[in-house]
Design a protein that fits this description.
By secondary structure, this protein is of the alpha+beta class. The protein contains 16 helices and 13 strands. The protein binds flavin-adenine dinucleotide.
Length: about 400
């Protein structure tokens, strides 16, 4: 039966309320609840990145060990806890069985917070720790999550009395194309020549996947040389293919990397402060960060136009012919060409956002047509229009 927005849903696994395997819809209502208004459709920055009061490129002067980039998120969490701003942090630890699998945690010591750094690139049941926080009577809580966690968190707080009175602080990561835990090693094995020794993994701005191994060696794989089978909708989760919130726009502060210039030594990050609470969180580590202005170079539109062809009647057959995985050498040449002549900085994120929104729109249209009006935000139609795509 078609769910109505805001309805409590129980998923096939029998989880309800705190289940992250079932995403609620994107909702402009939620945006108004957090910010007092929806994003302005005519403001192109808001349309792409969501509402923010401040955006910048940054890095921690002294990066923490075992984190994803320079550890801005973990550093904020540590300070928020140590200064008493919050009593605990809802986040993830690594599983003992598999380095990249997440274990939800309610971190209540500095050590537990430090141990939470780094990506676990699979769907995670982060919000299950809310129950623990409630049962311990915690009133000031920091939650770190992907877009699906944050959308559900905002909805829970609106609807459920037991967290209504909690003073919540929310840090988000931009996020896309997460995988189901059961498929992760299968996919990873196809990407890396030695997946068991990888300790750091990210899709980077130079159009290659960076895999850092335990001995420090960097393996790179061009996006265009990834085996096609691993991007099938069956392996990637349907909930990620139905997501239109790349920049995690309902947070107090979002911390990513893809809007920052690429430098594999400096590991610059991209920060979007969205609310007063986000400003409070930023100021906790202000003295420990180096700041840089955002940059934007190149023009994404020819690349997005090329990508969009596969969703047109005339372009679909041509795209099908070209859809194989390229040999590595050719893949590197194309990646290098796109990186040196294509979009960088903010223009790179716009490229990533537009291609994902277009792809996800057509995924929803083909697989869940009855949910289009619930799942798809208004600004997506502007992007379809801009590339002459049919809604
Ligand atoms: C699947 C995935 C896709 C991502 N895609 C992008 C992207 O396209 N563009 C971009 O700019 N950034 C993306 N990120 C975010 C990026 O990898 C970094 O987490 C971010 O830049 C913060 O870096 P940091 O050094 O400050 O993080 P850290 O200080 O290491 O903190 C990272 C925090 O994220 C939490 N975390 C890790 N994995 C997950 C997960 N699966 N779900 C919820 N929370 C998690 C950790 O527990 C930790 O609290 C993605 C992250 C994930 C997990």
């Amino acid at each position: 039966m078609r769910p109505v927005h805001g309805q409590r849903v129980v998923c096939k696994r029998g989880h309800s309320g705190l289940c992250i395997y079932h995403r609620l819809a994107w909702s402009a209502e939620q945006e108004s609840l957090v910010f007092g208004r929806e994003r302005y459709q005519d403001n192109s920055d808001e349309m792409f990145f969501g509402i923010s009061t401040k955006r910048f490129v940054a890095r921690m002067k002294k990066p923490l060990p075992n984190i994803q980039f320079t550890g801005i998120i973990t550093s904020i969490a540590k300070k928020a806890f140590e200064t008493g701003l919050v009593e605990a942090v809802v986040t993830l630890h690594r599983s003992k069985e598999d380095y990249f699998l997440p274990v939800p945690v309610l971190a209540r010591t500095t050590e537990e917070i430090l141990a939470s750094g780094g990506s676990k690139p699979v769907l995670a049941q982060t919000l299950s720790s809310l129950e623990k926080a409630c049962s311990k009577g915690i009133k000031r809580l920091l939650v770190i999550g992907a877009s699906c966690h944050v959308q559900n968190l905002r909805e829970f707080q609106r609807r459920f009395p037991y967290i209504k009175d909690m003073d919540l602080y929310v840090i988000g990561i931009p996020c896309t194309d997460n995988v189901h835990p059961k498929n992760f090693r299968f996919i990873f094995n196809k990407i890396s020549h030695s997946h068991e020794t990888v300790r750091h993994y990210e899709f980077m701005q130079d159009f290659t996947v960076h895999l850092r191994h335990i001995d420090g060696a960097l393996e790179r794989v061009p996006f265009f040389s990834l085996p096609k089978e691993i991007s099938s909708a069956e392996l990637l989760t349907h909930c990620c293919r139905c997501c239109f919130d790349y920049c995690n726009s309902l947070t107090d502060i979002t911390v990513g990397y893809s809007g920052a210039p690429l430098d594999i030594e400096k590991m610059y990050q991209w920060v979007l402060v969205r609310t007063e609470k986000g400003e409070q969180l930023r100021s906790l580590v202000a003295d420990e960060m180096e700041l840089f202005p955002e940059t934007s170079e190149g023009d994404r539109t020819p690349l997005v136009r090329q990508y969009a062809l596969r969703y047109t009647k005339d372009g679909a057959a041509e795209a099908m012919k070209m859809s194989g995985s390229m040999p590595l050498e050719q893949g590197f040449m194309l990646a290098e060409h796109m990186y040196t002549t294509g979009p960088r900085g903010l223009e790179f994120v716009r490229y990533a956002i537009e291609t994902h929104l277009i792809r996800n729109y057509y995924f929803v249209k083909s697989n869940y047509p009855h949910l289009i009006s619930i799942l798809v935000p208004r600004h997506v139609y502007r992007i379809l229009d801009a590339y002459d795509l049919k809604a």
